[in-house]
Specification:
heterodimer, A: 548 residues, alpha/beta, Dimethylsulfoxide Reductase, domain 2, Rossmann fold, 4 domains, six-stranded mixed beta barrel, B: 352 residues, alpha+beta, Ubiquitin-like (UB roll), Alpha-Beta Plaits, five-stranded mixed sheet, three-stranded antiparallel sheet, 16 strands
Chain lengths: 548, 352
Amino acid sequence: MAGLAATLGAGAMTNSISEIEGCPVIFVIGSNTTEAHPVISYSMKRAVKKGALLIVVDPRKIELTRWATRHFQHNVGSDIALLNAVMREIIKNGHHDTEFIENCTEGFEELKRTVEEYTPEKAAEICGLRPDEIRELALMLGTAEKAGLFYTLGITEHITGTDNVKTCANLQMLLGNVGVESAGVNPLRGQNNVQGACDMGVLPDVYTGYQKASDPAVRKKFEEAWGMEGLPDTDGTKIPAMFDGILNGDVKALYLIGENVVMSEPNQTHTIEALKELGFLIVQDIFMNETAEYADVVLPAACFAEKDGTFTNTERRVQRIRKAVEPPGEARDDWWIIKELSARMGRSMEYGSPVDIWDEIRGLTPSMKGITYERIKDDGLQWPCCGDEDPGTAYLYCGGKFPMGRAKFCPAQWKPPAEVPDDEYPFILTTGRRLWHYHTGTQTRRSAGFEEKFPEELIEINNEDADRLDINNGDYVMAVSRRGKVKVKVWVTDRVLPGVCFMSFHFHEACSNVLTNDVFDPVAGTAEYKACAIKIVKDGQEARGDGR
Amino acid sequence: MNKITLNIDGRELQAKSGQSLLSVARENGIYIPTLCYHPRTKKAGKCRICVVAVEGLPGLQVSCSLAAADGMIVHTYTKKIIETRKMIVELYLASGKHDCPTCEADGECELQDVAKVLGIEKSGFPMSDKGYVTDSSSPMIIRDMNKCIHCYRCIVGCNDLVVNEVIEMGYRGSRMTVVCDLDSPMGDSSCVICGECVQLCPTGALTEKKAAGKESNRDTVKVRTTCPYCGVGCQIFLHVRDNEILKVTGVEAAKPNYGSLCIKGRFGYDFVNSHDRLKSPLVRKDGKLVEVSWDEALDYTAKKLSQIKNDHGPDSIVGIGCARTTNEDNYLMMKLMRGVIGTNNVDHCART
C-alpha cells in the first residue's frame, strides 16, 4: 500500500469490481485470481467472453491462464525488470499518454532515464522470457484503448514489494490508465477486512483514514475526541520488528487478535522462538490455534456470524455484517472485550453497540463522514464519501485529480530476491493460496467437504525436475530451506517451470512458512513469502535442481 | 431508447422499445410464471409457461422472448392461457421424479410454486422414471437428473456468469441431460464447486449436500451479511434456524457479487458451529491454560498490562489487530493501544 500512497495518493484499489467487465484489456500480474478471489475472476472471464484481452503475467500456469489471451510465465521476482522493459518499449513506440503525463504527473524524465537501460534483451535474460515476448506485451498494452491492472501478493510479497507496486503504478500512469473508468491500479485484498483494518489505523504510523500519527494536529484532534492526553508521537513498530523486539528484550507483551502468527509469519522457527521468549501473550480468537498454545491468556471471541458491525471490501466499500446466531459459551464480541479491558486499565469507553463506535469513527475521519449504518444497509458505500449527500466514489482520481496535486512517477531498479537458488538449495519456492482452503486452515479445515477435495498439502514440482530426480506424483519428499524442513507430498505438474516449486500455508502438518525467508520490504515490512531457496530431499538423498 | 405504450390486461403501460413483455409485466406487478427465465440468466425460451395472448398474433406468445411493441394489446390471464400453463406444468410434473414430500427442494421449488398457483395437486399424467442414478460424488452438491426440467439456467450460469465452463447439455432426444465435462460424475469433474448451479436451479435437481435432511427451507430466517473470507465482500444470506446456519446463498441483485459465490463463501460456514470453538476465557496457571471467568481473565490481563507499562514503558507492549474482524473492533484496538496503553506499536497482517 505504501507504493500506491507514494505514487497516486491512496493505498487502495483505484477502481471498482463492477468496472472489470468494461475493461478492454485486463492485465493480471501476481494474482492467482480464480483461486484467491474467485468471484472477481468471474468478472474477468465474463469480460474475456465479451472480447476483452486478458494478459496474465505469473510464474505459474495458474487456472486463469485457461482464459488468457497471452500468458507470460516469467521468473519469480523479475517483475520490475519486465515492467521497466515494457515501459521502455511503450515510450519508444510513442504509445505513452503524453497529455496525461504532462498535465497530471511529475517525474516522467526520471522514469524515462531509469527504464532506458532495461532493453528487452537485458530484461528477457532476467525474466526468463524472449525479447520478442516483452515487445509483444508492450505492444498489447501500448495499443490498448485502456487497461485495468490487477495484482495481489505476487507483487507485494517481495523485499522489493513497495518498488513492485510503484512500478505497476508507473506503468498505468505512463499509459494514462488512472482516473478513468474500467482501468486503474487494483490491488485485490486477500482478507475480508484487511482494507478496513488499514483504514481504521491499525498501522504503526496512521490513525483512521490514513491521518498521520506524526502530525500534531491529528493527535490533538484525537486527544480532544477521546478525552485523552499525550498520544504517542513516534511511529510504532511493524510486525517483523515486534518479533525481533521480543527476542532482543524490548517487547514484553503482545496482544494478538485473530492472527495465527505461528502459521502465517515467515520462518516459523523464529516466530515460535519469539513466542516462547515473550513475557506475556494475550490471544483473542475463535479457536485454540497453533499460536494460542503459547498464550498466557486466551480470550474467546465471537465470529462474523455472531455480531454486528462493518467490513470494508477490496474496492473501499463499507458493508454491514449482521448477527445471525449466538456465540458459543462465553465468547464475546471483540469490541466488548477491548472496552472491558480498557475500563479495567482506568479508561472507560462508553459504547452500547457497534453503531456507537462507527459514529465516532466517521466523526473523526473526513473520507468516511457520509457513511452511516442507515445508508449502507444494502449495497454499502465506497470511500471517499464525505457528506450525507455524497454517493461515494467508484473510481479514484477522476479527471486526473490527485490528492498530492500530481501523481508521481517513482522509478525503481530491479534486484533479485534475497535468496536465490544455488548449488546447495537449487529450487526456488514460491507460496500462496489454494481454492480449496483459506489461510491457516482454521475455518475451511473445520468445514465439511473441503478436505475431500484437498486433504493435504502438495508441493508442486515440474515434470522435468520430477523425471530427472525420479520422483513420482504422490511421493513424499522433504522440502528443506536454510530455516527448516517439512515432509510433503509431491504434485508433479507443469503449472510450475523447471526449478520452481509451490506450496501453501493452509496445513500445519506441512506449512510453507517453516521454509519461507523472514526478510522484509524495508518500507512496507512485507515478508518475501514469494521467494526462497529450497532443496528437495528424497529417501534421505538430496535431489538436485537445474539451478535455473 | 424509444418509449412505447402498450396495453396489458386492460392497463395502459409505458415501456422501452425492445423490452420483453415479461419484463414490462413484472415491472408493473403483473404476475406471469416462469421456470427457465431468471433475472441473471435471462430469457431461455424453454419452459413456455410464460405464454400470453397478443391480439393480432396467432396462438400464444412466449412473453420472455417477445419484445413489447407500441400499441400492443396483451392478455396474461385467459382460460386458454391458464389451461396451457396447467398442461405444461402437469407434463413437467410427470416428466421425472417430482415427488415433493421427499424432495430436498420442498418449500423452495419454483415448479412446486407454479403448480400451487395453478391449483395443480397432482399431475394428470403418470410420473415417469428417467432412471438416472443420483450423483452424490461432489462433496457439496447432490445432482438428481430425474428432477431436471432442462431449463438451461445452470448451464448459462456455469458458462456465462461464473464462466467455469463445466456443465453442458449432453446426449440427444429423450436421453438429453445435463452433464459435467464429458459426462463425469460431478465430484470427478473440473467443477470448482462454486454452487452457482444450485442457486439457479428451479427444482430439486441440484441441492446442497450439507443441508440434506435438515429441512433448510422450513422455518428458517435469512440474515443478510458479508462473506468472511477474501476481500471481495460478497453479499450473502445465512439461512438460520435454532442458532444453526443451515446453508448460505448469494444475495441476487446486490453489489459486488450479484448472487455468485465461491466454494468458501457458499460452503465454508460450518466452522461457526464447530464443537471446538473457544467457549471460555483461559489463563495459564502452573504452565497450563485453565478456564476462568471473564472477570478473572480481564482483571488479570489489565493488571499485567498496567504493570508491564509501568515497569518497562508503553512501547514494551505491542498489539496486532485483525484483518478478519470488523472496523469497529479494529478501531477500538487502535484506540486501546494508542490512547490507553500509549504506544503506536499497533499493526496487523496487512501483508498476508
